[in-house]
Amino acid sequence: MKKGVMRPGHVQLRVLDIEEALAHYRDLLGLIEVERDDQGRAYLKGWTEVDKFSVVLRQADEPGMDFMGFKVLNNTVLEKLESDLTAYGCAVEHIAAGELSGCGRRIRFEAPTGHRFELYAEKEQPGKWGVSNVNPEAWPMDLKGMKATRFDHCLLYGPNVEDTYALFRDVLGFDLAEQVVDPEGNRVAAFLTASMKAHDVAFIDCPEPGKFHHASFYLETWESVLRAADLISMTNTSIDIGPTRHGLTHGQTIYFFDPSGNRNEVFCGGDYHYPDHEPVTWKAEDLGKAIFYHDRVLNERFLSVLT
After folding, report:
1. Residue ranges of the VOC domain (predicted)?
2. Strands (DSSP E) along 74-129, which ranges?
3. Which residues are catalytically annotated?
């Protein structure tokens, strides 16, 4: 049952050098640099996103994800979800409006996988970058690099995937769109959606808590993914795998790394999900084909390189 969570709103990533990271996320991925705050954090967005930002970069001593945020329908929903999280047994932290530039008050909690998530209802909405809301043109003419359209989802590794799924299902109203089960029937991966998308966040079982696998950005076409592959080679960017297709979600994809070692994905296509759809199930023994549909084999980096 939907509880008023609309979409992924932002992700804050730790990077080792802010200027190197900006050259990657702004000039290669093609995100728009919106501003920097007095903490030195950089704010970026995909050109189709109406909210002020969706990616925050923070310089730190080690890479990884600080938190992922979801936007909810309004403040009434935010208050209800805060109450429900507390009743469920989650410790809730309050972050004042303005701590992230242009964002309203946020409530933060930790999932059983060890990842921090937050909910908020308000963020400044300057609209799509370079495109009017009246008689809009097809796209801005000054886009860079891969021309990423939006921040789409994160894939996260940690323990207690089943408990985390229960929290997202029962309190936040997410649906299970796809899953991976082992031969004993245990769920070892859960792909969760608050919308019609194939997933808004996904979790894979891992003994170490709070690990970040990748942040994903949407492109419009397979040709755009192939062009992204060319740009990765042109810039000598560290590549993981692709271009290829997923079995899970059927998206067409390529994976690569930012200068700090955080993995990125750009993809196009993919399945959709309605609340009355049964979850799609993949068997763990077929995980190679589930992740990399063409090669049908997992590379070691994909499983072991986490931040």
Report:
1. 7-122, 150-269
2. 93-95, 106-110, 116-120
3. 153, 199, 214, 246, 255, 265
Separation between Cα atoms, residue 141 and residue 147, nearest integer Å? 10
Contact 82, 4 (CB under 8 A): no
Q: Which residues pair with 265 in a beta bridge?
A: 216, 255
Same domain as 227, residue 157: yes
Over residues 25-36, the pLDDT tens digits come to 999 999 999 999
Count CB-CB contacts under 10 A for residue 62: 10
Residue 185 pLDDT class (50, 70, 90 cuts)? confident
pTM: 0.95
pLDDT in tens, 260-303: 999 999 998 888 888 899 998 888 776 766 677 566 666 766 76
For residue 106, give every residue at least 6 positions away whose Cβ sits within 8 Å of its Cβ, in sequence order, or none. Answer: 69, 94, 95, 99, 100, 118, 119, 120
Strand blocks (E) in 145-222: 150-158, 175-181, 187-193, 201-205, 211-218
Total domains, the chain? 2
Question: Which residues constitute the domain of residue 265?
Answer: 150-304
Q: Are strands 150-158 and 116-120 parallel, antiparallel or unpaired?
A: unpaired
